[in-house]
Design goal:
27 strands; Methionyl-trna Synthetase, domain 2; alpha+beta; six-stranded parallel sheet; Isoleucyl-tRNA Synthetase, Domain 1; nucleotide-binding; OB fold (Dihydrolipoamide Acetyltransferase, E2P)
């Protein structure tokens, strides 16, 4: 791993969190896999050698529980779903270089090697712990066989995760008021001997790792309270029949916890790819063992702790390389509420395809609808708006009118005209912005920058009006426009693989847009190409009304069972719609009552036990104030000192999570964009 900007000389491995084979895929799942695929393709555009891998998570209690409910063996259930997923992902142009599953021999053997390495390095020990037990069923209750109350936040939780509250990983015996999911009866706690990975061995290592790690702010900031607050050791075994048998002594009747073998599938899938193409082409050991690679994990934000605490410890304990970056996507909500498979509050992958929409349209929407870590609030109206305005009106309209004029008047690219300085500068700036966005793990900006280049093209052709010029005068304009079309095709390919290929073919280019790199944005287009076709069809208003009516029916049906368990908790609305202006007005005198001051952040730290809150020390000139702000997961707190902010200095004092707050820091929008000053105003300066 390096800390150099992409592209680096070392190959990259991009992974996506493994799906459980317990249900059909919906657009919430697809957001993670589309984002991983788009980022992988984006790195390749920069010239970075990149391998994209994942697999199906076959083990653990979710599969075991569902298999019992359906009267089949867990392996049969898992393999059926695995094959379904392997067929569904390519339908959305999510193309893994290798897609395996955790019950394959490669992963089983690698997992056992990891555990033996931990034992050899003295990181594993035995301990008697309290494990839930159902006396009526005469069965131990690991993980999702038991539910109860989270000991940290008091919300309803599953046995291994507080899925409805603080989202913390829960160890066996931690859940309070345990209830068996098999019989519905209260469970009992009994002592059992289990194996633990001693996370305390990695305390100092993890404190350094979390500062080195790149990725999204939520992935970098959320684990700090767990790491800095002292690590609890990780129980790596379960009382279960389904999984990988513990390979060492004293674990003959135990299997490994699913979160042991699941992330090791990243290594196993890479190894399978290496074995398929040959180690001369790609050496998995060089990347994973020697550290000569860039490891990037794209996951849902509900499994941040597993990838930033457990996984790096597992790697370090077995002498493997650490990840360079962890990127955690937000959820996809419908009507402001989390998706629920049990209540059919979802838009299923198959359902989307059955509507006849091209998969690239959903890819673009999911990858660019909001920032990587922010939620997307899906509606067919927003989907149609972005397809119509950004893809049809901007990209499609510009490409069609430019290539049609070029074909009819010049048979292709005018050959006697050079690329203008204005357009070359615009393309170079787009390339730089695109590269910077990918290095910031910012897919939204990368995709929108490509669309902005098409908008520039539309403005450029409209401004120069080549249809009013003779051929000699029109040739330089059209030469510029064809070059812009080619650059747009290259930059949009990670988001719109099929549509970009269509555009590439319309340009008369050889090969595929997939093989083009960012440098090809400035390579001269072919001299000849045929008449183009429209790339995108607009989504009509009537169609949107029908789709939203169907969706609303689903939501209303789901609302009748609001007490049912949802798959994800409701989160902030991640849409980009503006809130309506308030009708209530205040007087100038009321406004003057606000004492707004320029402040300078002196220090910033997360508040232990609070997911979103941070404690700031802010210099407001007359004094340094302690202020609590809900920015913990939205900003790199270590980078905030010396940042200028605007403070409501005469806000009443309050207490949040046991911490006194003396003022309010102003911020805009769901991303908490901190308000600051254009010039270098001194702390304490009054804002008028």
């Amino acid at each position: 791993m390096t800390d150099e900007d992409y592209p680096t000389d070392d190959p990259a491995v991009v992974t996506c969190g493994l799906p459980y084979p317990t249900g059909d895929l919906h657009i919430g799942h697809l957001r993670t896999y589309v984002s991983g695929d788009a980022f992988s393709r984006g790195l390749q555009k920069l010239g970075q050698e990149t391998v994209f891998v994942s697999g199906t998570d076959m083990h653990g209690t979710p599969i075991a529980v569902q298999a019992i409910q359906e009267g089949v063996e867990p392996l049969e259930l898992g393999l059926d779903r695995h094959e379904q997923y392997a067929e569904t992902f390519p339908q959305f142009n999510v193309e893994f270089d290798n897609y395996g599953h955790t019950d394959e021999e490669t992963n089983v053997e690698l997992t056992k090697e990891f555990v033996r390495a931990w034992e050899s390095n003295d990181h594993v020990y035995e301990k008697e712990i309290q494990v839930a037990y159902d006396p009526d069923a005469d069965q131990w209750l690991p993980d999702r066989y038991v539910e109860g109350t989270c000991p940290y936040c008091g919300e309803h939780a599953r046995g291994d995760e507080c899925d409805e509250g603080c989202q913390r990983h829960l160890e066996p015996g931690e859940i309070e008021e345990p209830v068996s999911t098999i019989t519905g009866n209260s469970a009992e706690y009994h002592e059992r001997t289990h194996k633990f990975l001693r996370l305390s061995d990695f305390q100092e290592y993890l404190e350094g790792f979390i500062n080195r790690m790149e990725g999204t702010n939520n992935a970098k900031n959320q684990p700090r309270e767990w790491i800095e607050g002292g690590l609890e050791d990780f129980c790596i075994t379960r009382d279960l029949d389904w999984g990988i048998d513990y390979p060492g002594e004293g674990g003959e009747d135990l299997v490994l916890y699913v979160w042991v073998d699941a992330p090791i599938e990243y290594v196993a899938s890479t190894k399978q790819y290496s074995e398929r193409v040959g180690s001369e082409t790609f050496d998995w050991e060089s990347v994973w063992k020697d550290g000569d690679g860039e490891l990037v994990h794209v996951i849902g934000r509900d499994i941040i702790q597993h990838h930033t605490v457990f996984w790096p410890s597992m790697l370090a304990g077995a002498d493997y390389a650490e990840p360079r970056a962890v990127c955690a996507t937000g959820f996809v909500n419908i009507d402001g509420k989390g998706l629920s498979t049990s209540k059919n509050r979802a838009i299923w992958a198959e359902e989307y395809l059955d509507e006849g929409f091209h998969p690239d349209l959903l890819r673009y929407y999911l990858a660019t609808a909001s920032g990587f870590e922010r939620d997307v609030n899906f509606s067919w109206e927003r989907f149609a708006q972005r397809v119509n305005t950004e893809l049809a009106d901007a990209v499609g309209n510009f490409a069609y009118r430019a290539l049609l004029f070029a074909n009819r008047n010049f048979g292709g690219t005018p050959q006697d005209a050079a690329l203008s300085d204005e357009v070359e500068t615009e393309i170079v700036q787009a390339m730089d912005d695109y590269e910077n966005a990918l290095n910031d793990y910012d897919l939204r900006t990368a995709g929108e920058r490509a669309v902005a280049l098409a908008r520039f093209g539309n403005e450029y052709i409209q401004r120069n009006e080549p249809w009013k010029l003779d051929d000699d005068e029109a040739a330089p304009v059209i030469r510029d426009c064809v070059q812009l079309v080619k650059a747009v095709a290259v930059l949009l390919q990670p988001f719109l693989p099929e549509k970009a290929d269509d555009l590439w073919s319309q340009l008369g280019e050889d090969g595929s847009a997939e093989d083009a790199t960012i440098a090809d944005c400035l390579q001269a287009p072919p001299a000849e190409f045929g008449e183009p076709e429209e790339l995108f069809e607009k989504v009509e208003d009537e169609r949107v009304e029908d789709l939203d009516e169907t969706l609303q029916t689903k939501i209303e049906a789901a609302s009748s069972g609001e007490d049912d368990e949802a798959d994800v908790t409701d989160e902030d609305d991640g849409s980009t719609e503006l809130e309506p202006l308030t009708e209530d007005r205040i007087s100038f005198e009321d406004f003057q009552d606000l004492d707004l001051r320029v402040g300078e952040v002196v220090s910033a730290e997360g508040i232990e036990g609070a997911d979103d809150l941070a404690r700031l020390e802010v210099d407001i000139g007359h004094e340094v104030r302690q202020i609590v702000a809900g920015i913990k997961q939205l900003h790199d707190l270590d980078a905030l000192p010396e940042t200028k902010v605007v403070v409501v200095a005469n806000m009443e004092q309050s207490e949040l999570f046991g911490v006194e707050s003396n003022g309010m820091v102003l911020a805009a929008g769901d991303d908490a964009d901190l308000l600051t000053t254009h010039e270098d105003s001194e702390p304490g300066t009054k804002v008028l």
